[in-house]
């Protein structure tokens, strides 16, 4: 199986690599979050936010009360327009924004291990104009965690 993840889909791709490494021939990261072995999803997300500076008008939801970690979030309108669909025509942005739903926040404890996640052959494709996984972060992930090809 060849799996492909784009943007924040790198988290799902990485999770699948950790859980089912023996079933994956190659994992292709297309301008996607590609974590280091020995890290967690939240550490990778924190790195993205640290580089872009903000999630702007995105909203976090706390189904278990504010004293507990957020359970989901939704990208805000401004964030969506400027970080997720900045190169799209306005009508596509409007349509895609109307389809945005809450995303669950990773709750399951997960550590990407060298034994599983690190054993899968990886390919990384860089996009120079991405505003969420900026080129600087893409190059940093590649340098710290070089893909095989």
UniProtKB/TrEMBL annotation:
<dbReference type="InterPro" id="IPR029058">
    <property type="entry name" value="AB_hydrolase_fold"/>
</dbReference>
<dbReference type="GO" id="GO:0080032">
    <property type="term" value="F:methyl jasmonate esterase activity"/>
</dbReference>
<protein>
    <recommendedName>
        <fullName>AB hydrolase-1 domain-containing protein</fullName>
    </recommendedName>
</protein>
<dbReference type="InterPro" id="IPR000073">
    <property type="entry name" value="AB_hydrolase_1"/>
</dbReference>
<dbReference type="Pfam" id="PF12697">
    <property type="entry name" value="Abhydrolase_6"/>
</dbReference>
<dbReference type="GO" id="GO:0009694">
    <property type="term" value="P:jasmonic acid metabolic process"/>
</dbReference>
<dbReference type="GO" id="GO:0080030">
    <property type="term" value="F:methyl indole-3-acetate esterase activity"/>
</dbReference>
<dbReference type="GO" id="GO:0080031">
    <property type="term" value="F:methyl salicylate esterase activity"/>
</dbReference>
<feature type="domain" description="AB hydrolase-1">
    <location>
        <begin position="1"/>
        <end position="143"/>
    </location>
</feature>
<dbReference type="InterPro" id="IPR045889">
    <property type="entry name" value="MES/HNL"/>
</dbReference>
<dbReference type="GO" id="GO:0009696">
    <property type="term" value="P:salicylic acid metabolic process"/>
</dbReference>
């Amino acid at each position: 199986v060849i799996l492909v993840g784009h943007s924040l889909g790198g988290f799902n791709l990485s999770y699948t690599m950790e859980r089912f490494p023996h079933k994956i021939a190659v994992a292709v990261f297309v301008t996607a979050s590609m974590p280091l072995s020995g890290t967690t999803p939240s550490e990778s997300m924190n790195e993205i936010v640290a580089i872009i500076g903000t999630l702007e008008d995105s909203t976090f939801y706390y189904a278990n009360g504010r004293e507990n970690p957020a359970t989901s979030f939704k990208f805000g309108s401004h964030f969506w327009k400027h970080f997720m669909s900045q190169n799209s025509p306005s009508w596509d942005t409007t349509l895609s924004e109307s389809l945005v739903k809450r995303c669950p926040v990773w709750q399951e404890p997960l550590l990407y291990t060298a034994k599983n996640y690190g054993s899968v052959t990886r390919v990384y494709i860089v996009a120079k104009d991405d505003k969420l996984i900026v080129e600087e972060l893409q190059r940093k992930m590649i340098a710290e965690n070089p893909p095989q090809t």
